Amino acid sequence: MKFLLVFDFDHTIIDENSDTWIVKCAPERKLPNGLRNSYQPGHWTEYMGRVFVYLGDNGVKEDEMKRTITTIPFTAGMIDLLGFIGENKELFDCIIVSDSNTVFIDWILKAADFHKVFDEVFTNPAAFSSAGYLTVQHFHAHHCAKCPKNLCKRKVLKEFLDKQLERGVSYTQVIYIGDGGNDLCPVMFLKKNDIAMPRQGYTLEKRISQLAQSLSPVQCSVLVWSSAIDIMSYLKLLIKE
C-alpha cells in the first residue's frame, strides 16, 4: 500500500511565485516596462530568461539571488505537512512537478531541510553560466495544445507512473496537490480512485468547477484545501484505513 503525492511548487508548497519574487533583486525592486510587457502567453520560460539577463546585467550575483529566494514563506501548514510526510516515507512517494526551475527549488528545499522528503523534482533545468548569469531551459518538448510550450505536467506524471510500474511499483492512490491552470491537464489524467486537491480560490479550483458545471467533470475525487493542515488531515485518515 503506497500513495503517490504530486506537488506543484509556486503558490502550493511556497506561498508566492518564485519567478516574480526574484524581482526583489532588481534595481528599485522592479523591472523596466519594456521587459515586463514582453511576456507572451505560453512562453514564460523565455520571458524569465530575459529577466535573468537583466538581473545579470545589473550585477545581481548568485549569493544575493539565493538569499532572496530562501526568504519566500511556505504556505500555511506546509512545514507541518512536509514534516509528517518525511516521517511516513514508507507509505508516501512524493514528487514535485513545477514550472519553476531546479536552482530555485533546490535552494528552498535545502534551506528548510526538506529535500529528502521528495523522491524526484521535475522542473525546468537551470544553472549559472561562467559569467554568473542564471540560465533556464525548457523541461521537455511535448504535443499538448493545452499546456505551456516548455512543460506538460500530464506527460511528466504519465511517464513517471509508467517508469514506476516497470520497477514493480504501483500506487493505491495518486494525490495531486496544486493551484494553477497548468495543473488541470494532469488532474484530467487522474483516475476515479485518485484525488485532486486544488488550493481554495486559485485557478485550478475554478477550472475544475467550470468543468463540473459544463457536465464534463474530472474523473477523480476533488478535495479543496486552504491550509496544508487540510491535506495532512486527509493523509492521516488514509493511513488509518
What's the arrangement of strands in the largest beta sheet?
Answer: 3-2-1-6-7-8
Q: Please, how many helices?
A: 10
The rounded Rg comes to 18 Å
Helical residues, percent: 25-40%
CATH topology category name of one domain: Rossmann fold
Structural class, please? alpha/beta
Poorly predicted regions are none
Elements, N to C (H/E): EHHHHHEHEEEHEHEHEH
By CATH reckoning, the class of one domain would read Alpha Beta
Largest sheet: 6 strands, parallel
Q: Would you identify the CATH architecture of one domain? A: 3-Layer(aba) Sandwich
Tell me the overall shape: globular
**Average pLDDT across residues?**
95
The total of beta strands comes to: 8
- CATH homologous superfamily designation of one domain: HAD superfamily/HAD-like
Distance between the termini: 11 Å
Cofactor: Mg(2+)
Protein name: PHOP2 phosphatase
GO molecular function: metal ion binding; phosphatase activity
Family: Belongs to the HAD-like hydrolase superfamily. PHOSPHO family.
Task: Set down the secondary structure blueprint.
Blueprint: E1 3-7, H1 18-21, H2 33-36, H3 44-57, H4 62-69, H5 78-87, E2 92-101, H6 102-111, E3 120-124, E4 126-128, E5 134-136, H7 153-166, E6 173-178, H8 184-189, E7 195-198, H9 203-213, E8 221-222, H10 228-240
How would you describe this structure to a colleague?
The chain has a domain at 3-15 and 74-124 and 147-239: Rossmann fold. Helix content is 39%, strand content 16%. It is built from 10 helices and 8 strands. It has a 6-stranded parallel β-sheet with strand order 3-2-1-6-7-8. The chain has a two-stranded antiparallel sheet with strand order 4-5. Strand 7, helix 9 and strand 8 form a beta-alpha-beta unit. The mean pLDDT is 95.
